[in-house]
Amino acid sequence: MNNNPDYSNISPTYNKRYQVNPLFGIQKYLIDLVVKENPQTVLEVGCGTAYWISIIEKLIKHSIGLDLSTGMLKEGKKSSKNISFVNGNAECIPFHNKSCDLIYCVNMIHQVGDKTRYITSAFEKLKTDGIFVIIGTDPMEKNDEWFIHKFFDGTYELDKKRFPSWNYLIDQFNTACFSELDLQTLEIIESRQVGKEIFDNYFIQKDSGSQLAMLDDYEYHKGINKIEQCVKNNPRYEFATKITMKALSGRK
Ligand SMILES: C[S@@+](CC[C@H](N)C(=O)[O-])C[C@H]1O[C@@H](n2cnc3c(N)ncnc32)[C@H](O)[C@@H]1O
């Protein structure tokens, strides 16, 4: 199993997840932040299909989306002509030092191999007083759960390795010399499907997210068979999802 999927394979269908849940809590946080800070140059690292940057781009003079996957950038380019797109790596952001007012990422920190290099690179590229934000989730957080981890072998163990805890990120922000650290909950994604309702859940499709996209067909179908067997044995079985989305911000 690879540690990250090839996003170019899932880029054409990636935005379907936002039809299922537009994640209004994250939208509100980003809009409020931009209105409050009035940044001129904003960079989204790991922008994917540009879902987030296209929500705030009208409020900003220069919007830039950076991503490692050319397939994701190809989808992103369809969203707006006012966003500049750059193919590059978060670990070495390809811009001049002190060039951005706001740098943020959503649901991508778990994919970055060297998180220290990414956070240090973001610090360098920010102007004095600039803001850096990491938005995401820690699936190991107490009280969070996701049925995918129970039914698809290896996904929990892999996520445990990939996703940093918020305490780890706070230490990294402090080491990089960010100040005014703020960690807040933006929204809690919660759902519960009973028995065969689970087959209507978008997130059991193979290309719906990185966890299942990384499985080979054998492992994926093994998980689907486990779900089918579970529903057969207990038609009232509850498949639970509780994922807490948070934002950690710091000022240079
Ligand atoms: C889960 S997707 C999230 C996309 C987008 N931020 C969103 O929330 O819709 C993660 C994205 O991060 C990108 N990515 C992963 N590692 C990266 C890296 N080291 N540098 C830049 N982009 C990276 C992937 O190509 C992918 O587009």
Quick structural gist:
This protein is an alpha/beta fold and 252 residues long. It has helices spanning 7-10, 16-20, 24-37, 53-56, 70-76, 115-125, 147-151, 155-162, 166-175, 210-213, 217-233, and strands at 41-45, 62-67, 83-87, 100-106, 126-136, 145-146, 179-194, 238-251.
Low-confidence region ranges? none
Tell me about the biggest sheet?
8 strands, mixed
Distance between the termini: 38 Å
Structural classification? alpha/beta
Q: What share of the residues lie within helices?
A: 25-40%
Bound molecules: S-adenosylmethionine
Q: How would the blueprint of this fold be written?
A:
Elements lengths: L6 H4 L5 H5 L3 H14 L3 E5 L7 H4 L5 E6 L2 H7 L6 E5 L12 E7 L8 H11 E11 L8 E2 H5 L3 H8 L3 H10 L3 E16 L15 H4 L3 H17 L4 E14 L1
Parallel strand pairs: 1-2, 1-4, 2-3, 4-5
Antiparallel strand pairs: 5-8, 6-8, 7-8
The structure holds S-adenosylmethionine.
Report on this structure:
With 252 residues, the protein is α/β, with parallel strands linked by helices. It contains eleven helices and eight strands. It has one domain (7-251): 3-Layer(aba) Sandwich (Rossmann fold), CATH 3.40.50.150. The chain has helices spanning 7-10, 16-20, 24-37, 53-56, 70-76, 115-125, 147-151, 155-162, 166-175, 210-213, 217-233; strands at 41-45, 62-67, 83-87, 100-106, 126-136, 145-146, 179-194, 238-251. Strands 1, 2, 3, 4, 5, 6, 7 and 8 form an eight-stranded mixed β-sheet that branches. α6 (115-125) links the parallel β4 and β5. The chain is globular. The N and C termini lie far apart (38 Å). It binds S-adenosylmethionine. S-adenosylmethionine is lined by residues 7, 45-48, 51-52, 66-69, 72, 89-91, 106-108, 111-112, 210.
